[in-house]
Design brief:
The chain is of the alpha+beta class. 25% of the residues lie in helices and 27% in strands.
């Protein structure tokens, strides 16, 4: 029996979550690991499941305990995405072979309907703002504003022996959006280690920062001690390849330059304000209003794609930033 937990005020256990998974998927297998990073213990958790054609994984990292509930919901979310695509509930435009759309962008599940809708919206706004910062939007600039007084970073002080820890807000000067988007960066003091970073979005500033820090620590935990042996010649349009591409000290300079707003201005994307969004209900039949699943889409926000180039940036940006750091 997996652990029992409280999610959005509803008492559930992991076994109950997995009852929503269609029968063609194998029973999820759990993995747990504790990683010591410069004196900070990170609790890594995950679940994996396959249907014979593919294997999907949901993972999480915590500072105080293993968080299998987050891993379980992430796995269920990814399985829901695959099932929704195969049943025709969602579809993705085809791009050429060097890039493809992220299938998970703007998809969220939750036990509360409004929270699921909100989470899916936050995700597409986060990706849009980070991408426009990276590529340098001329028409609607996004600048990085340092957030120096972040008390949450106090627990991470041991990391400061190797990393310069920074939190930035992605500020969209022309936007009337009430959504905060933040990035948490660990910038190595020398190039013996790779940069790590995470992003978050929320209507509350503190929640946005907490999400960014959590994502950054998860990336650090799962990559700590891993060698940077990725071959760019073998780069494929996948999230993991984007992660590995920047898990290389040789590319630290690109991240440092970005954090100093040094990427330049190349992209001209003129969105509607506020963004017009549509939500697709992609819940599995087995969820029966106990878990809600939605995909948020908007033509007024830059879509997340993987691979060399981006459909809106092709031919506009220098070669060294053609691969964005989102994974």
């Amino acid at each position: 029996m997996f652990s029992r937990f409280i999610y959005n005020g509803v008492r559930m256990d992991i076994e109950r979550i997995f009852e929503f998974i269609p029968g063609r998927w194998k029973k999820p297998e759990e993995f747990r690991q504790e990683v010591d990073v410069l004196g900070i213990k990170l609790f890594l958790s995950g679940f994996s499941s396959s249907n014979g054609a593919m294997e999907l994984v949901g993972s999480s990292a915590g500072m105080d305990r293993h968080e299998p509930e987050r891993s379980a919901f992430e796995l269920l979310e990814r399985i829901t995405t695959v099932e929704a695509e195969e049943s025709g509930l969602i579809a993705f435009d085809k791009l050429d072979g060097i890039c493809r759309y992220s299938k998970s962008n703007g998809i969220a599940i939750h036990t509360d309907k409004n929270t699921a809708l909100q989470k899916s919206y936050f995700e597409v706004v986060e990706r849009d703002r980070v991408l426009r910062s990276w590529f340098g939007d001329i028409a609607n600039p996004v600048v990085l504003r340092s957030c120096p007084d972040v008390r949450l970073l106090g627990r991470l002080e041991p990391l400061a022996a190797v990393f310069d820890l920074r939190v930035f807000e992605f500020v969209e000067n022309l936007s009337r959006s009430k959504t905060f988007v933040h990035g948490f960066f660990g910038l190595p003091k020398n190039d013996n280690a790779a940069c790590f970073f995470g992003f978050g979005a929320d209507s509350e500033e503190s929640a946005s920062i907490a999400k960014a820090v959590g994502e950054g620590l998860q990336r650090l935990g799962f990559t700590w001690g891993e060698k940077a042996d990725f071959d760019p010649a073998a780069f494929k349009p996948t999230a993991i390849d984007h992660l590995l591409y920047y898990h290389d000290p040789a590319r630290n300079g690109l991240i440092r330059r970005w954090c100093s707003n040094g990427n330049g201005r190349y992209l001209k994307f003129i969105p509607h304000e506020p963004p017009r969004c549509v939500w697709n209900n992609i819940a599995l039949k087995s969820m029966q209003d106990r878990i809600y699943a939605y995909q948020c889409k908007s033509d007024d926000l830059l879509p997340l794609t993987f691979g060399f180039d981006h459909p809106y940036a092709r031919g506009l940006v220098p070669d060294e930033i053609r691969v964005h750091p989102l994974a």
